[in-house]
From TrEMBL:
<dbReference type="InterPro" id="IPR011060">
    <property type="entry name" value="RibuloseP-bd_barrel"/>
</dbReference>
<dbReference type="InterPro" id="IPR045186">
    <property type="entry name" value="Indole-3-glycerol_P_synth"/>
</dbReference>
<keyword id="KW-0028">Amino-acid biosynthesis</keyword>
<keyword id="KW-0456">Lyase</keyword>
<dbReference type="Pfam" id="PF00218">
    <property type="entry name" value="IGPS"/>
</dbReference>
<feature type="domain" description="Indole-3-glycerol phosphate synthase">
    <location>
        <begin position="4"/>
        <end position="248"/>
    </location>
</feature>
<dbReference type="GO" id="GO:0004425">
    <property type="term" value="F:indole-3-glycerol-phosphate synthase activity"/>
</dbReference>
<keyword id="KW-0175">Coiled coil</keyword>
<protein>
    <recommendedName>
        <fullName>Indole-3-glycerol phosphate synthase</fullName>
        <ecNumber>4.1.1.48</ecNumber>
    </recommendedName>
</protein>
<dbReference type="GO" id="GO:0000162">
    <property type="term" value="P:L-tryptophan biosynthetic process"/>
</dbReference>
<comment type="similarity">
    <text>Belongs to the TrpC family.</text>
</comment>
<keyword id="KW-0210">Decarboxylase</keyword>
<dbReference type="InterPro" id="IPR013798">
    <property type="entry name" value="Indole-3-glycerol_P_synth_dom"/>
</dbReference>
<keyword id="KW-0057">Aromatic amino acid biosynthesis</keyword>
<dbReference type="GO" id="GO:0004640">
    <property type="term" value="F:phosphoribosylanthranilate isomerase activity"/>
</dbReference>
<dbReference type="InterPro" id="IPR013785">
    <property type="entry name" value="Aldolase_TIM"/>
</dbReference>
<comment type="pathway">
    <text>Amino-acid biosynthesis; L-tryptophan biosynthesis; L-tryptophan from chorismate: step 4/5.</text>
</comment>
Length: 259
């Protein structure tokens, strides 16, 4: 069993448990459920193009930073021009929680990506109820039909969809309704990072779709390389989070890159 299989196995149990505690009708009662969402399509163009991620730990890197709070970090990310923030809500593998989104929602005015492993309709209602604007669908955990059905559901809740792919085979998961296609530079089965692999895959995407380069952007050269290859957006976590002050590090990066 690879790490992704383990994550999905556990996620299934967690969703079953969550459903037994809180119904979809109860989720709809949340103060955020009816809120108009913020569009990443807009901020991707009007801001730096970077989706900065709040991530305490990961299966590939262990603890990255467990000393900072989501609010101190993401308000700096917003201040220095992040197009959106990605916030992990998976607890067991990434040390995240719904509280990480709830604690910042009323304090920032850029889209929030709920970063989790979406395998059940219920999780889309959860995402909406905690104030997320965008959800991630990971092609390797879903069938093309599920991607299509979940995209429809997300849109009915006014959530945008980032579909993540990693291989040529997963190109068939793309449908015309997904808002963004993310190409993960990291193979989630063995954690190998290969930027050129992503560029090769990007060249096979439909021309009119927003493309996001995800993961393993470890320095300025990586960023410049991917930007020059035409990616519209960049999802970056560890490079900023591993610093004592991730927000400041992002500020320095933006100013060096002149974005
Ligand atoms: O990062 C991992 O170890 C990981 C393992 C299994 C599934 C997902 C994983 N990461 C989620 C992500 O997509 C990254 O956090 C995100 O793209 C940012 O990556 P990075 O800039 O390398 O922190």
């Amino acid at each position: 069993m690879n790490i992704l299989d383990k994550i999905i196995e556990r996620k299934k149990q967690e969703v079953t448990e969550a459903k037994s505690k809180i119904s979809i009708e109860q989720l709809k009662d949340s103060e955020f459920f009816g809120r108009p969402t913020l569009s990443l399509k807009k901020t991707l163009k009007s801001k730096s193009g970077i989706i900065t991620e709040f991530k305490r730990q990961s299966p590939s890197k262990g603890i990255i930073n467990n000393k900072v709070s989501p609010l101190e970090v993401v308000s700096q990310y917003e201040k220095f021009g992040a197009s959106a923030v990605s916030i992990l809500t998976d607890k067991y593998f990434f040390g995240g929680s719904f509280e990480d989104i709830l604690s910042v929602r009323n304090h920032i005015n850029i889209p929030i990506l709920r970063k989790d492993f979406m395998i059940d309709e219920y999780q889309f209602y959860e995402a909406k109820s905690i104030g997320a604007d965008v959800v991630l669908l990971i092609a390797s955990c879903l069938s093309p039909t599920q991607v299509s059905e979940f995209t429809e559901l997300a849109h009915s809740l006014d959530l945008e969809v980032l579909l993540e792919i990693h291989s040529e085979e997963e190109l068939k998961h793309i449908n015309k309704n997904v808002d963004f296609v993310g190409i993960n530079n990291r193979n989630l089965k063995d954690f190998k990072v290969d930027l050129q692999h992503s560029v090769d895959l990007k060249n096979q995407l439909p021309k009119d779709i927003f493309s996001i380069a995800e993961s393993g952007i470890y320095n300025e050269e990586d960023f410049i390389f991917l930007k020059e290859k035409g990616f519209d957006g960049f999802l970056m976590g560890e490079y900023f989070m591993k610093n004592e002050n991730p927000g400041e590090k992002f500020g320095e990066f933006v100013s060096k890159m002149r974005i």
